[in-house]
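Chain A, query sequence.
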Amino acid sequence: MTTPLDRSTAWAYEQGQPGPFSYQRDHHPAAAAAEEALGALDGGSAVLFGSGMAAVTGVVLTLLQPGDTVALASGAYYGTGKTFAALVRWGLRTVEFDQTAPPPDDVQLVWIEAPSNPMLTMPDFGAAVAHPAPVVCDSTVGTPLYVRPLAHGCDIALHSATKYLGGHDDLLLGAAICRDPGVAERIHATRRQLGLTAAPDPAWLLLRSLETIELRVRRQTETAHALADRLAAHPAVSIVRYPGFGGLLSFDVADLDAAMRVETSTRLIANRTSLGSTRTSMESRRRWEGERCPPGLLRLSVGLEDVEQLWADLELALDPA
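Chain A, predicted structure.
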């Protein structure tokens, strides 16, 4: 049965006391249903946020205090690092580390990605969870179909639900799924206090999308496999990064100019940011990430189009590169 969409901002008290829902900033029916579904997927207690970066902010402000240090995986999503940098003025410190190796000792939070975006490295889960600090794993790209961080011993699985969980380019959400329900309650309190709540409409759309996530992501994985193999054999491509699952890959052409020619030469593949949609998109990441990203790197988010049509589009764009 489809969860009804209730856009109410306030609900009547029950015999003089707040019921399960009293004010939308605290909680509402669509978010509660979405959290139940997300918790089942990742095996924990979920807290829904208004965006992926809202989830990052809510988790960090809940778990850390001024003077604490977070160990951030090198090559992780650039927006996470920018958020941590913005919190420097409040006393947060950040040190980057190679997530294929153990995290540094003197940190209060370990932040990994499985896989990283756009370098697509996988973390050493054993080394990460052996650290005494809590471990957050951003598994936006992996999705619960291929990576369940809590099953690897992580404390929190984090998602930009805008991407594969939503999958249709029509919602903006984030989520933190916690091993410990008590931690989830603390993060929920931070969300409520700071007003980082997800609105009812995108939460309801997420519920719709979760019904098809397995069909979508498995199809995207099959196509991404085929395209990664063909790209690796193309003379204009110097390197292909693909972890073997999921719909995201990246590849390098000669330089930034070549990357910009390729991204603007496709007809079927959209030249735009974000990822995880049913429609394929591609972009040069140098424009956003600067020197931390190879100049010729192109990030390709594979959708549900026919693989032969996608390859024909890529091949035509690569020929002049």
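The chain has two domains: 29-210, 213-318. The two ends are 51 Å apart (CA to CA).
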